[in-house]
Amino acid sequence: MVKEAFIGNYDIREVLERYGLTGRKLYIAGDPAPLEGVWIPFRDVIMYRNYFPWLQAIDHDTVLILNNCLKRTQLTCLEYNCIRHYCLNAGAILVFCPLPLVESISDFRAARSFIAPNPFAKDFDNDYSHIHANFRITYHVQEITLPPEAHEKYEALKQNLIDECRDKAENGKPCTPGIIPRRLLRFAEKYKPAGYDRLDDFKSEMKLCVSDLKCDQYFYHELLRKKAESESLYDYIPS
């Protein structure tokens, strides 16, 4: 039984040919693929209108293609668990991800679970022989220094956001402190030239403008961490 994961830029048709899977019944979840098969987006894997028909249709003659389904940080989220049920029925499973994480390398456990003998198992062995990778992460960085008045406005906005969140909490209203860094990041974007990627994004190649504001420094160091953790996968994959 073919169960393989591919991290990076791979041609799905070529992979199907490599493993002798052309002409098989294809069920595709995640991003669209230029293939003749049944497709649903990642968000719809949990829908009743898809879930039970897929469970009935997917069998040992089916190739299940999971195309960029590494979307969550919770290993046991509903979407992943539905996918695992599909995996139990499929005759072959091909997992394709552009990068091996969402927030941390522990997210990659989901992709590994999809090709594991028991996709619901909580522990994995050290066998990475069915995982392939060719991704490269490159940041093109321009650093800028903002004027003192920008720093003053930044500190005032940060304090206002903190006070607003505190007031909501004290009055029993919902408050999400995690939105504060992103609100501050939006403020920082006003001082940057156009044409740069947002620092709270994560792609294999990014054009970054990093100011000396604390929020920019935080998100930039998060990108560096994600790059290092992603590339650590190469320490385990057989060359």
Order of helices and strands: EHEEHEHEHEEHHEH
| Poorly predicted parts | none
Q: What is the typical, i.e. mean, pLDDT? A: 95
Q: Give the beta-strand count.
A: 8
Structural class: alpha/beta
Report the portion of residues in β strands: 15-25%
Radius of gyration over C-alpha positions, nearest whole angstrom? 21 Å
The major sheet is characterized as: 6 strands, parallel
**Helix segment tally:** 7
Helix-residue proportion: 25-40%
**Shape designation:** elongated
Distance between the termini: 22 Å
Strand order of the largest sheet: 3-2-4-5-1-6
Walk me through what this model shows.
The chain has 239 residues and is of the alpha/beta class. The chain contains 7 helices and 8 strands, in the order βαββαβαβαββααβα. A 6-stranded parallel β-sheet has the order 3-2-4-5-1-6, with helices on one face. A two-stranded parallel ribbon has the order 7-8. The longest helix has 23 residues, at 148-170. The mean pLDDT is 95.
